[in-house]
Structure prediction request, 292 residues.
Amino acid sequence: MGGAVAGKLLITGAAGQLGQALIQAGARQGWEVVATDAHDLDITDPQLVQGELSRQRPEVVINAAAATRVDDLESDPDGALLVNAMGPRNLAVACRRLGIKLIHLSTDYVFDGTKLGPYVEWDATEPLSVYGQSKLLGEEWVRQQCPDHFIVRTAWLYGVPGPNFVTAILARGRQLGPDGELKVVQDQRGTPTSTMALAPQLLALAATEAFGTYHATCQGETTWFEFAGLILKTAGITVRVTPCTTAEFPRPAPRPANSVLENRLLRVAGLDRMPAWQAAYRQFWEVYGDRL
Prediction:
């Protein structure tokens, strides 16, 4: 942008995979990026949040901070509420007082996954897990407290540094080798979404005043089983991949069987920049493959 500054952008959760992608995309687009993480901005502390936002005065805050260890949170509902609901509320209150736009990340886990087709933004929410419940309350508090908000639900997110499905499958595939068998769930559908694709989409929204709730995933849909096959093939790892059911792999937190989100409102607003999931994965691998 020829040195022009797009504005000041404060990112929470900057050490995570989406935070890292946002720092890079923001710098490329000419934003003055203020990267914060839990050790320098604890979003669960309302005074700290108000003080830091008053000091920095960004145009936009992107909240990429969240407690995402879905299975662990089943036995820690208070921890989930603190980070995923009260944290966003604290940011929303401070952003309202200071006239700052807030972009808050949410999740497919606010739905129960029983719908036959893709979920649109106004479908009824019915979270199955503590994580999903805490994220839904976070959404509701952001809507209540900050009029200038974008709530952006995404799903099946992967990026660097991880951990995520991509890093897990690569590690397991290398560990097992050609003689090993890798069982992967094939009765959950969704859309693998690259942080490299999502970060520019969030910044495109930040440049508008088209406030509201949006879905932002890559285009198309697949299963975890099919995605695992692509990950291993792209990496040149030979291992036998066998489909299995969710019931064969019981986990503390229930997963939605259908996590396919349609970017309906982004599309109608002329703002949908998300690529096909396969193309996004190829691009991700080209950039990061040698480090994974």
The mean pLDDT is 96. The longest helix spans residues 77-98. The radius of gyration is 19 Å. Residues 7-161+194-219+254-276 form a domain with the Rossmann fold fold (CATH 3.40.50.720).
